[in-house]
Amino acid sequence: AIPDPGNYSQVFVSPQLPLEASFSTRGARSHTDRSMAAQAGDGDRLFVTKIPPTTTKEAISEHFAQFGLTTDVYLPQVPGRPVHKGIAFISFAEPQATKLAMSSGPHIIAGQEVVVDIAAPRGQRPADANTSNAQIGAIPDRLFITKVPPILNVDHMTGHFQQFGELKDVYMPSAPGAGQHKGIAFVSFVDPEAVNRALAHQPHEVHGHLVVVDVAAPRGVAASPPAGKGGFQA
To answer: 222 and 233 in contact (C-beta within 8 Å)?
Structure first.
């Protein structure tokens, strides 16, 4: 039988959601995505550096409260000393507050300008961590430093890298019979997130000398060496 031309549209046109329902559905998905991102801590923290020793936690809290509700203000302390390390982590209840703060620079606290950036997500490995780390699922807690001039020693390296987190060890292998180090160093942190902070700080100038900073291979895992050279592990 030939369809009645008067009912042609009823035969071939598939039913569609009303326009209002379509917009509503998209809006619901967008809200869900935002909620999941907030629960995962996606972009809800700031990493603040260059904080003068005289700046207090209260002053930092008061400054960043203008952008949204803060859930935590953390100033790591220098071990054994009643002063902070010049860095802070600011956590917000809503990721939108982080965006607002980032778009509102420069940031002046107690008359001093500080540097504000997005903090790496909790527990995330640095983006350029080597393949071996990713394969074994380890979170790197060490840095591999090269181009270290002979004039620099363990004290210089410690003084520079402790700003990123509490140190476990600073190791500078010595050149056999040379009476000096090999121009490399391994810096180990108590908190693996300190590796993220250090890598985000590039370039690194230690006591007036630029050094090259990268993620160290986990102990017992060989790093992928540059062409023609051997890899280092300690």
So the answer is: yes
DSSP code of residue 83: S
Structure tokens at 31: 């809200």
E-assigned strand segments in the chain: 45-49, 70-74, 88-92, 107-109, 112-118, 142-146, 167-171, 185-189, 204-206, 209-215
CA angle 82/165/173 to nearest 5° reads 120
Residue 131 reports pLDDT greater than 70: no
Sheet holding 142-146, edge to edge: 167-171, 185-189, 142-146, 209-215, 204-206
Return the structure tokens found at 175.
């050149």
User: Per this entry, what is the length of the chain?
Assistant: 234
Which CA distances in Å does 27 have to 19, 24, 33, 40, 43?
13, 5, 10, 20, 21
83-129 per-position pLDDT tens digit: 888 888 999 999 899 989 988 878 999 888 988 888 776 654 444 43
Tell me the C-alpha distance between 20 and 58, whole Å: 48
Other beta carbons within 10 angstroms of residue 183's beta carbon come to 16
